[in-house]
Design brief:
- This protein has helices at 16-36, 48-67, 72-76, 78-95, 115-133, 141-159, 164-181, 185-209, 212-222, 233-245, 271-304, 308-332, 350-368; strands spanning 97-99, 102-108, 111-113.
- Helices cover 66% and strands 3% of the residues.
- 41% of the residues are buried.
- The chain starts with 15 loop residues before the first helix and ends in a 6-residue tail after the last helix.
- The chain has a three-stranded antiparallel sheet.
- A hairpin with a 2-residue loop joins β1 (97-99) and β2.
């Protein structure tokens, strides 16, 4: 099969503005990772920040690789990618590496990766193709319910790892994309009524199926003060860390909660807490503004997309990134349960960084080709 021709003229239309937002947010994350993991009580400096820089470079390369080819090639291979992703999710449950009570990684030589992270983009592309292939609303029951199964299968596989946070985000992203297509009202009403009727019967089985640490996180969210040195420790320490920053922060490399190891997961899930301690409320507003500009760029790209597939994919990617941001911030300030969701582009993690860069690369691709005739 012939590979698509690279059309270099599109590089003149490259969206440097979006790439700049990505790099600024990511480098802010690197600086915060360095500060959060710097040695105070010892002389050893972990190499997390160096690894994160390497992943950012790989992510930038992936962005340029993604934009070289017309995004319609993604549409052509969407279902193949979906099947490949499902196979990866099944395999990781069978032969994946376990850690911290979960089995969600593949070890590949010198690094490991999470297939659930990559599947975020695969699912959006596959759902985008499915929705764009349906003319008008999803008015027929088979279409509506087959679309639901499309999103439900990977959700079940991901929560089996278990990775409840990512599974819920994928499910919510799917439903938001489906609503943007407009599902017939009677289908939505029926699903809501069924959910209300079945939910009481599922509460106990679902609670019993949760891991102990997941149950503790829910209890900690409801009442962090119940066990401040145990199940409520993360939330309490996170709020203390953020509060210590006050208006203008303690200053860069002057935060103490992370380096002194009071705050768990300081360079991953709770990296924003470290940032807020050093830069305060003013710095938090600045980083929020950068994320807002990125989300607005994604929405604008969806509105200007030249076809339904591109519009659905742009909506899905933007909403997915927004959900990760919203849930992480809600988690660290104590208004949402701790579900292990990183803040996109800032938190340490190779697979997450590269996947997010690929996702935004697809947005840039769509924006570059919005004026080209089909």
């Amino acid at each position: 099969m012939r590979l698509p021709q690279i059309n270099r003229k599109y590089l003149k239309l490259f969206d440097w503005y979006t790439l700049l937002l990505l790099v600024v947010i990511s480098l802010t994350g690197v600086l915060t990772i360095y500060s959060a993991t710097r040695p105070i009580l010892s002389s050893h400096q972990p190499s997390y920040y160096i690894k994160q820089l390497l992943w950012i470079v790989i992510g930038i390369v992936c962005v340029f690789a993604v934009v070289l080819y017309d995004y319609l090639w993604l549409k052509n291979f969407a279902y193949v990618l979906y099947i490949f992703g499902i196979v990866m999710l099944v395999l990781v449950l069978m032969v994946g590496r376990s850690g911290l009570g979960a089995q969600r990684w593949f070890d590949v030589g010198i690094f490991s990766f999470q297939p659930s992270e990559l599947f975020r983009v695969i699912l959006i592309v596959a759902i985008g193709k499915y929705l764009s292939s349906v003319k008008g609303q999803l008015t027929k029951w088979p279409l509506g319910f087959s679309a639901i199964i499309f999103g439900l299968l990977p959700f079940i596989l991901i929560i089996k790892q278990p990775h409840l946070g990512t599974g819920l985000i994928l499910l919510m992203t799917y439903f938001f994309m489906a609503l943007s297509k407009k599902i017939e009202r009677r289908i939505i009403i029926t699903l809501v009524v069924l959910a209300v009727m079945v939910a009481p019967l599922l509460i106990k089985p679902m609670w019993n199926s949760l891991k102990d640490y997941q149950k503790k996180r829910i209890v900690a969210f409801i009442d962090p003060s119940r066990d401040p040195r145990g199940i409520g420790y993360q939330i309490e320490q996170s709020k203390i860390t953020i509060g210590a920053g006050m208006i203008f922060g303690r200053g860069y490399l002057k935060g103490t909660q992370g380096p002194l190891k009071f705050l768990p997961e300081k360079h991953t899930d709770f990296i924003f807490s470290v940032f807020a301690e050093e830069w305060g409320f003013a710095g938090s507003i600045f980083i929020f503004a950068l994320y807002l500009l990125l989300f607005m760029r994604g929405i604008d790209t969806a509105m200007k997309a030249k076809d339904d597939f591109a519009r659905h994919v742009a909506i899905g990617i933007t909403f997915m990134l927004f959900l990760y941001f919203l849930i992480n911030i809600g988690m660290v300030i104590g208004v949402m349960p701790v579900v292990g969701v990183p803040i996109p582009l800032m938190s340490y993690g190779g697979t997450s960084i590269v996947t997010n860069y690929i996702a935004v690369g697809i947005l840039i691709n769509i924006r570059m080709r919005r004026l080209v005739l089909l």
